[in-house]
Every structure is written in C-alpha cells, then in structure tokens.
Amino acid sequence: MGKQKNRRPKWKKPVLAISGLLLFVLALELMKEGAGGLAPFLRGRLEITNIADSMGLGWLMAYLVLSGSPAAAAGVTLLNANALSTLQTFTMVAGSRLGACSIVLLVGFIYALRGHKRWTALTPGVLSMILTGSIQLLAVPMGLMMLSRGWFHRLSLPALERLAGGIDRGLEPLVGPLATFLPAWALFAVGVGLAMFSFRLFDQVLPKFHLEKTGFDQIPRLIYRPGIMFLMGLAVTLVTMSVSISVGILVPLSTRGYIRQENIIPYILGANISTMVDTLVAAALLGDPRAVAVVMTYAACAALVSLPIVLLAYRPYERAVSRALAWITRERRNFALFLVIIIVIPVILILL
Q: What is the pTM (predicted TM-score) of this model?
C-alpha cells in the first residue's frame, strides 16, 4: 500500500513540462506587450538611461523575485520593445546573474536555521556572489566592446522570426483583450509573475536529489579536478536550466561534507556560463536577433574569462577567492558588511 501511495502518475511530469512551456511563452508575450508602454516610466520615473542603471535594475529585480531568469527574460523583452538599448539589456542580464546568487544565500540561511554549521551552509552562496562578481569585472567590459562592434549581430534567424510571428498570431486572441483592460505596467508584472510560476513548474519536473543514495562520499578523486568540476557545473545547469537549482544543491552537499570549498569554485564558474540557456530560449522565442546577440555575447564572455582561469591560473585564483571568503566569514560583523555591500551596490548603480 505504501508503494502505491508514493507512486505518481507517469503523465504528471510531461503535463507539468508542457504547461510550464506554454505559460513561459504566454509570459513572454505579456511582457513584450507591456514592455512598450514602460519606456516612459523607465526613462522618466526610474531614470534608467545608461548601462549602470540597467545593471542595477536587473540586479534588484532578481533579488525581488528570488531568481535571475525572470529578470533576464524581462530584459530581453524590454529590448524587443525598444524600451532598453542593446548595451543596457546586456548589463541588465549581467545584473540578473548577480541577483540570482541571493537564492543560494537564502537556502544557506535556511540550512543554518535548521541546525547545520552556519558558515558551511552559507559558503556556496557567498562563493557564488564572489565568483560571479569577479568574472563580471572582465566579462561586462568585454561584452560591451563586442556589442558596440556588432559581434553576433549578423546572425540570421529567419526560422525564429517566423516562429515568433506565429506565436504572436496564436496568442493575440488572449493577449489582445488583456492589453485593452490592463495598463502596460500591470501587463508586464503579470508576465513576470507567470514566468516565475512557469519556472516553478519546470522545477517540479526535475528529479529530486536523495543525497544519501548518490554515493558522493565514494566518488573518485578524478571528479574533484577543477576541469571536471567545471564541466559538471556546466552540464548540471544546462540540464536544470537554473543556476539557482544547480548551485543551490551545493548547500546540502557542503553541509554533509560531500564536497569541499575548493571543488565548489570551478563548479560555479561552469554553472555561470550555461545558466544563460533559458534566457537564450526566451530571446529565440521573441524572434529578435538583437536579443539573441546579447545572450550569446554574455555566454561567450563568461566562457572567455572562466576557461583561462580554470585551465591556466586556477590555484592563484582559488587562493584569492579563499582569502576573500575567509575574511567575510571570519566574524558576523564582516558578513553583515558583505550583505550591506551587495544590497547597496545595485541601488547606487540605479542612482548613478
């Protein structure tokens, strides 16, 4: 009887996956429809007029929704509606990656409250923020230069443009009446909410991790090499389409001693590259070559910065990151200062 109770219908996951995809497509359409009317609000009220402003916007939005994916998807829809420039969209996507680290910190806090060692539980979240920030110090200027010179802008996407046109026509009977009754900001907000819900549906489709059965404590030393862990982070994030999930699982693995700090670093570096896959899908569904160029540029820059670190300069980089982590987790005062800094910086960026 117990086995029958735990047995779930085989059709449940496919239905959830299809429902999540359809809701995601609808969310993009609603955000795209509402984005056009947001341009005066962004430039007038919020004064999002430069690349620093848009980076802060993406960063804070990811904090608010506890996920970088809806914030990045919002960025490419704003570009599609010409509410943001290509460069502004790039920095908004970059900011969303930094804000996405907040969910890993939150998971760490929850584990710490449940009785696990505080700093062990918080280490993956702190490392995620340090690593993402350090990579973007080089990746963002590099990406802005690439986009300014038109790299990736010659991508021909006729099939995607036809697909986007078909989606527009198919959803017009639903989106049109909503656009008539709802103001632009409400339409955009509903789209963001639906995007968040669609990602939750996708999360339910993913397999659950039962750490006691994984045999992590018996994995050979080969898998702990930086290059292997880098590829693991790349692959797990590509499959889950969520850096929050792929990096979030490091919290229980770390608290139970299955994975060490030095193994987490290359894993997160890999995850930060393939995390763009869901935003690439959003850009493709919009059928806007500019949006695809922005996403491809970010992924390329993250890879160009991360690969040399993992292959050529991993030990010095690891030592520098470890020193920063040790200082942040040495005292509560240091950790509190770290939290204040990562909250204040995006606000300052918007005010610039």
A: 0.78
Q: pLDDT, tens digit, for every residue of 96-123? A: 989 888 777 877 777 766 655 666 778 8
Listing DSSP states for 106-139 in one string gives HHHHHHHHTTS-HHHHHHHHHHHHHHHHHHHHHH
For the stretch 71-87, pLDDT in tens is 888 888 888 888 889 99
Cβ burial, residue 189 (10 Å; 0-12/13-18/19+): middle
- At position 316, the amino acid (one-letter code) is P
Q: Are 98 and 275 in contact (CB under 8 A)?
A: no
Report DSSP letters for 16-60, one per residue.
Answer: HHHHHHHHHHHHHHHHHHHHGGGHHIIIIIS---SHHHHHHHHHH
Question: Taking CA 318 as the corner, what is the angle to CA 317 and CA 319, rounded to the nearest 5 degrees?
Answer: 90
CA angle centred on 250, ends 248 and 253, rounded to 5°: 130
- Report pLDDT digits (tens) over 7-43: 556 666 666 666 766 776 777 677 766 666 666 667 6
Cα–Cα separations (whole angstroms), residue 30 to 26, 62, 171: 6, 19, 10
Counted residue by residue, the chain has a size of: 352
The sign of the CA dihedral 339, 340, 344, 345 is negative
